[in-house]
């Protein structure tokens, strides 16, 4: 069976069999496919140049009409290769730009970038999640969108099941890299496995890194003979045999993004904006002010405030009182040995 070269973004040529192409070329003289050379330099960026190697003489020059589907297929490949793809980072639990290894790695070498948060319809049901939790989450998303604005980007909020949303986004945005934080929970692992399978089927590169926990939970369980450690002492013993956690990643800045651009629509807020509590169906008429505001900026301010505090010895007016047992008199040494204890007042 004749084999057509598959063109890839890294310039290498892989091979894949096309039964339709085989049916068109079988039994016909093989001639050169010269048109492919014309598409080598569609994009001036050398990163996206099409490097064609080992193109076989598969198309019959005498039957151009029959070869048209083959030419069209190769043309689509050339255009797809030369067009810069989009890097997408899915926000999950790590609603932050600092210390985010999967985000930093996704931005490395990217030319177009979008940060996405998927609103699962199950969680948007007001009967599943309370209003205070939703308010905290929306404040986190608003703060993240504000931080992305300073980087000439925006947060894309998309509603739907992730396994249904991403196949559409793969085609609509021409995604070539998908990155997210590894989810340690069973439900999240199952969902992420399904998304990774969909991405790999169409050649989308996956970047998944651990940042929700300091240590890889799978390594901890593996080091403990396949079972989770049930005591803190055992947990410390397992950690002593593992490598120390990686150092925190730096915050994402304009220098980090560099030439990476985010295409923003004029109707971005209408299509990808952050919903309000009213949009989610909550009654906010009697909602009181929240004590702890959500968001990375608020969290960093609180952390900095704690770090700036210096230890001072407590100022206590300490006095000691001898407790007397009801079983003996005040001077009874037996009662002294039984219940004498200092009590601090301040």
UniProtKB/TrEMBL annotation:
GO terms for molecular function: DNA binding; FAD binding. SUPFAM superfamilies: Cryptochrome/photolyase, N-terminal domain. Residues 85-214 form the Photolyase/cryptochrome alpha/beta domain. One of its GO terms (cellular component) is nucleus. Pfam families: DNA_photolyase. InterPro entries: Crypto/Photolyase_N_sf (IPR036155), Cryptochrome/DNA_photolyase_1 (IPR002081), DNA_photolyase_N (IPR006050), Rossmann-like_a/b/a_fold (IPR014729). This is Photolyase/cryptochrome alpha/beta domain-containing protein.
């Amino acid at each position: 069976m004749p084999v057509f070269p598959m063109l890839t973004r890294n310039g290498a040529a892989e091979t894949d069999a096309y039964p339709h192409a085989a049916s068109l070329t079988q039994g016909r003289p093989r001639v050169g496919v010269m048109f492919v050379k014309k598409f080598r330099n569609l994009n001036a960026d050398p990163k996206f140049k099409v490097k064609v190697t080992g193109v076989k003489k598969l198309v019959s020059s005498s039957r151009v009409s029959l070869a048209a589907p083959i030419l069209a297929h190769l043309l689509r490949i050339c255009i797809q290769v030369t067009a810069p793809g989009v890097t997408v980072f899915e926000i999950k639990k790590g609603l932050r730009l600092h210390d985010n290894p999967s985000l930093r790695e996704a931005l490395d070498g990217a030319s177009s970038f979008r940060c996405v948060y998927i609103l699962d319809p199950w969680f948007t049901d007001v009967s599943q999640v309370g209003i205070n939790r939703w308010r905290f989450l929306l404040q986190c998303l608003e703060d993240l969108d504000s931080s992305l604005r300073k980087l000439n980007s925006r947060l894309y909020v998309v509603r739907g099941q992730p396994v249904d949303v991403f196949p559409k986004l793969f085609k609509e945005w021409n995604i070539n890299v998908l990155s997210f934080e590894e989810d340690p929970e069973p439900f999240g692992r199952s969902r992420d496995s399904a998304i990774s399978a969909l991405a790999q089927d169409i050649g989308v590169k996956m970047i998944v890194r651990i940042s929700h926990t300091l240590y890889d939970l799978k390594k901890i369980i593996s080091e403990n003979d396949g079972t989770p450690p049930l005591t803190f002492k055992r947990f410390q013993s397992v950690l002593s045999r593992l490598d120390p956690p990686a150092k925190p990643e730096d915050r994402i800045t304009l220098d980090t993004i560099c030439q990476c651009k985010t295409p923003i629509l004029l109707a971005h807020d209408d299509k990808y904006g952050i919903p309000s509590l009213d949009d989610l169906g909550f009654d906010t008429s009697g909602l009181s002010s929240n004590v702890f505001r959500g968001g990375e900026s608020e969290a960093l301010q609180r952390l900095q405030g704690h770090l700036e505090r210096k230890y001072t010895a407590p100022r206590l007016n300490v006095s000691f009182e001898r407790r007397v047992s009801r079983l003996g008199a005040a001077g009874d040494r037996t009662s002294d040995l039984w219940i004498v204890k200092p009590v601090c007042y301040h």
